[in-house]
Amino acid sequence: MMGGPSENPELWAFLESLHCGELLSGTVTAIERFGVFVALEDGPDHPVFPGVGFISCAELSWQRFESASDVVQVGQRVSCEFLQFDTWNLEARLSLRATQPDPFHAFADSIAVGQKLHGQVTKLVPFGAFVQVADGIEGLVHLRELTRTPVQTPADAVQVGDEVTIVITKIDRERRTLTLSRRQSPSERR
């Protein structure tokens, strides 16, 4: 632990003054495998880290990305939502994606279960295939829903890059997931 209020009184007081949901601005100072450090404009420096603000990879973007540097660059000015005071590391946990509308919810508002969509296969996993149905929106077609006749692996039915027609079978807003079926789609080739 970094020490209590007595060791870093200015930093501790600053962090305790922040409220969940408050917008904080700063500059990206370092990009690590596990997240991004941000030097906050209004706050004191951190005794150890390159910034008092920290954005975990999960809080960087609603879109899927390979590395944090695909989303932000060192030196970039960002405006983030304050999530919580991490008393162990003496840092402000931040979210960049919270400042942007969630594309999943906007998409979910425009579709319905039973609706037919076109998409592109983006990834094969042992239990099925992920299909992109809109920008930044993917759904899962379970293995048993890939074809009318059973297959051993997803690769027996589709390949990454294939254009497919699917039907929405479930929309889970809380988990932000779409479940799809290719088997129930009328145009699925036997």
What's the number of structural domains? 2
Report the major sheet.
5 strands, mixed, barrel
What is the tally of beta strands?
10
Q: List low-confidence stretches.
A: none
Question: What's the number of helices?
Answer: 2
Average pLDDT taken over every residue: 93
Q: How would you explain this protein's 3D organization?
A:
This protein has 190 residues and is mainly beta. The chain contains 2 helices and 10 strands. It has 2 domains: 91 residues, OB fold (Dihydrolipoamide Acetyltransferase, E2P) (Beta Barrel); 76 residues, Nucleic acid-binding proteins (OB fold (Dihydrolipoamide Acetyltransferase, E2P), Beta Barrel). It has a 5-stranded mixed β-barrel. A 5-stranded mixed β-barrel has the order 6-7-8-10-9. It is elongated. The mean pLDDT is 93.
Notable features of this structure?
single chain, 190 residues, mainly beta, OB fold (Dihydrolipoamide Acetyltransferase, E2P), 2 domains, 5-stranded mixed beta barrel
Describe the structure concisely for a colleague.
The protein is mainly beta and 190 residues long. The chain has helices at residues 9-16, 103-109, and strands at 23-32, 35-40, 53-56, 77-86, 91-95, 116-125, 128-134, 137-142, 163-172, 177-181.
Which helices and strands appear, and what pairs or packs with what?
Elements: H1 9-16, E1 23-32, E2 35-40, E3 53-56, E4 77-86, E5 91-95, H2 103-109, E6 116-125, E7 128-134, E8 137-142, E9 163-172, E10 177-181
Parallel strand pairs: 3-5, 8-10
Antiparallel strand pairs: 1-2, 1-4, 2-3, 4-5, 6-7, 6-9, 7-8, 9-10
